[in-house]
Amino acid sequence: RKKIEEPFGWAKTVGGMAQTMYRGVERVRSRFILTMVVNNLARLPRLLGA
Q1: Looking at the predicted structure, is the pLDDT value of residue 50 above 80?
Q2: Side-chain half-sphere of 24: how many Cα atoms within 13 Å?
Q3: ∠ CA 34-1-33, rounded to 5°
Q4: Whole-prediction pTM
Q5: Which of 16, 20, 22, 46 lies at a 20 to 30 A Cα distance from 30?
Q6: Cβ neighbours of residue 31 under 8 Å, at least 6 residues apart?
Q7: Tens digits of per-residue pLDDT, 11-42?
Q8: What gap in Å lies between CA 6 and CA 3, rounded to an integer?
Q9: Number of domains present in the structure of the chain
């Protein structure tokens, strides 16, 4: 459960996905994917160091 909840919490607080500025499913989906890519990039050093 932590593997699921933590990225979504990060996306809402740090990634700015709590309230999106975009309209339309495609734009919101694109922003969400970009936010999750950034989340993975932020986690990468910790994953490589383990």
Answers
A1: no
A2: 3
A3: 10
A4: 0.79
A5: 46
A6: 17, 20, 22
A7: 999 988 888 888 999 999 999 999 999 999 99
A8: 6
A9: 1
The answer to whether the CB of 1 falls within 8 A of the CB of 26 is no
Tokens matching residue 24:
């339309």
Residue 27 in 3-state DSSP?
helix
Domain extent, residue 7, equals: 2-49
Q: Secondary structure of the chain: what % helix, strand, coil (to 5)?
A: 75, 0, 25
For residue 34, which of 46, 3, 42 has the smallest C-alpha distance?
A: 42
Cα–Cα distance for residue pair 24/17, rounded to 1 Å: 14
